[in-house]
């Protein structure tokens, strides 16, 4: 959704109706996560994807139909054993889509939500998908305000409370309520689409490898910062556009920087005077990934220094060192792919093994 919002914002600002299909639920080996979106706009222009090609043709027709009749629909697509050529997911999974028309009249908050997402401001878009409430009704929830309604004051209040909790965690999914927001009922299904600010990637050491890691981090959707104590190396012209570059001692910068459970920290300095004080700070704060570059000998020496600094076995167990998966990487770009692969594998619980050597579902349970 983030990727196609600029186009949708242009259609919305021009008052051009468009059909928006959003993945609201998945099961088994579904190819896309909840929140993935596809839209059909003026002159049948298509942006986005909900399945990687399996059902896009059918969704295209649905999107055109909801624009024509103004009524939102909930559709489920799965693999058909009886007819493998029927519309469905050949991967064997199942996805449920909410397909709804979007105009300033039907969704007055859409423009404000898009502006917040573009500005990196946290916001949740709550949409009724099923039950005795107007399907397609939307409520936008920010940490300090709301816009729109799902039909009743009680439902709005319950969804607002939940949306703010989910937003703090960056969670997207369906929640169930009664028509007036009753917690013990599940007749109304509401899709909470959280647009938390992008996760951060902190890269320490302004070397060629850092430029490559910063580039792949930006590609993966991270907000990337490169930090190095040497101003001659910590210059923006050495890094991709949009990457923040900071000239500061790494441990001092990290000490004054917020991290959370989504943050990736890549230590590429492989110099004890930089990386040992830095890792003392990193291993004692929230982060999804902490990796450090260096040979196995460097790793052993660094670990001994960290033990001497008082770090516990549990803290040291968080360190991914030497950094990256074993891809046989040589160049900075290849090493960056290795690091990115390890980050993705750790995030989703992947083994890092070739898929030809594994069995079972390719896409693991969320």
From TrEMBL:
Residues 201-343 form the XdhC Rossmann domain. Residues 11-78, 117-178 form the XdhC- CoxI domain. Pfam families: XdhC_C, XdhC_CoxI. Gene3D superfamilies: NAD(P)-binding Rossmann-like Domain. InterPro entries: MoCofactor_Util/Proc, XdhC_CoxI, XdhC_Rossmann_dom. This is Xanthine dehydrogenase accessory factor. It comes from Streptomyces rishiriensis. The lineage of its organism: Bacteria, Bacillati, Actinomycetota, Actinomycetes, Kitasatosporales.
